[in-house]
Amino acid sequence: MDRTAAAADYLADLRAHPRRVPHLPADLVPRSLAEGYAVQALLVRKLLDRHGGRPVGYKIACTSELAQRALGVDAPFFGVLLSHSTRRGPATLPAGGFTVRCAEAEFGFEMAADVPPGPHSADTIAAHVGAVIPSIEIVDHRYHDWQAVGAPSLLADNAIHGAWVEGDPVADWRDLDLARHPTALTVNGGPPLTGSGAAVLGNPLNVLAWLANELPRYGLKLSRGDKVTTGLTTGVYLAQPGDRLAADFGRLGRVELAFA
User: Which of 12, 84, 100, 117 shows the smallest number of beta carbons within 10 Å?
Assistant: First the structure.
């Protein structure tokens, strides 16, 4: 078995039998982003074999300067959204199904058309968007310290994606300035963590354009029907069993989830 397949097997086992480790075994650590994506592709295949379903789109990680500085990278990286871990809100998720439960209020998009080769900008990618989706991503990693392991190891583990809870898609969004559009994450009815679309590369459409430009480097592309979630817009909340969360996107709606 080659090291890429062995790394995918190791990560699949960490997900099947949840536990935390300091890092991947030294001989399995991806040596580059390209190696990390190769491991990710095999891991996604294993997750589909185990859970069934299909890919439904992409998640983008590391879309803030703070996260990029923490990992020593100058750009985001992506993972794959899967139907078995995607829910329409309001949703209840089993708390025991995650190693950690980092809840993030995120702008999602649904593509209305296949995206042709770029380069793309926020303006050009907007023409291919069908709807904006209020959403909560649950980031779930298996490392003692996620900042210590490096971007290739994180993206190899499907960009440490745990689950995605989507609200109702909103087609009437084009008069909104998504960069200035406010977001809020509320936990158990308490004071909200607030933010805006500016937290993710200045505008969530910039994140979507980055993805459209990046995917072809790995033989992929954004297609009609794909859904994309674009990264953390407020502070992170580490959810606990019994928590009830709500992400409020104002005119774009809200989405709720609970951990049982």
Answer: 117
